[in-house]
Amino acid sequence: MKLSDYAAKVGIKYQTAWKHYRQGLIPGAYQLATGTIVVPDDVLQKAGKTGVDAAVYARVSSRETRDNLDTQAERMTQFATARGYKVIRVVKEVGSGIHDGRKPFLSLLSDENVDVIVVEHRDRATRFGLAYIQTLLAASGRRIEVANEAEHDREELMQDLIAIITSFTARYYGRRRGKRKTEKLIEELRRNGHPG
Fold first, then answer.
1. Residues of the chain where predicted confidence (pLDDT) is lower than 70
2. pLDDT computed for residue 16 by the predictor
3. Range of the domain at 38
4. Selected catalytic residue, list 61, 96, 107, 110
5. pTM for the complete prediction?
6. Are residues 79 and 133 part of one domain?
7. Structural contact between residues 171 and 59, judged by C-beta atoms closer than 8 angstroms
């Protein structure tokens, strides 16, 4: 089938499908000399179903922003439903986007019943390495769909930066001394007008 037909069947825009093709996220897709992109029919038939089973993943970094968790999950459930997906799982988590051991997220990534994982922003899934995750999911005909590609949340980005600094200073100086060095650095950033 043509890439445009594939996009219509999975419920995404052609531009999104084109981006997925360029990133290697559609297994077996290839381009003809004429420029037409062909997607093998079995990409959709592998799972033996016509609909798209989706999971919604909502995450916040800290307990202070926990109120946003339910509303974020609700927005993404509505987004997925509007795209014609059947929402079979909703996963909510409090934790840093730089932490790669988040058990609820890892469980979702390994759930082969889920065709698409819907997240509000790229950083809801992970701060770093989303392309790696997308590539690995594509090998089994799955993907992460980002509802809003716009960058946001400067304060949360600052929290992640602090977490990275804390981790590295603790490794370099030891836990107790590293904590003091991190606190000193954060205080200096605040004095220089950076939020935190």
1. 44-50, 64, 150-160, 173-179, 193-196
2. 82
3. 1-44
4. 61
5. 0.58
6. yes
7. no
Considering the domain architecture, whether residues 143 and 174 belong to the same structural domain is answered as: no
Residue tagged 């804390």 (tokens): 166
Q: Is 107 among the catalytic positions?
A: no
- Characterise 105 by phi-psi region: left (phi > 0), alpha (psi -120 to 50), beta (else): alpha
Which token pair is 106? 């890892």
One domain, residues 21 and 66: no
Distance of CA 156 to the CA centre of its chain: 16
8 Å CB contact between 159 and 61: yes
- Does residue 52 share a domain with residue 121? yes
**52 in Cβ contact with 82 (< 8 Å):** no
Distance CA 50, CA 44 (A): 7
- At 190, list the tokens: 């605040």
What is the distance between the alpha carbons of residues 59 and 26, in angstroms, rounded to a whole number? 26
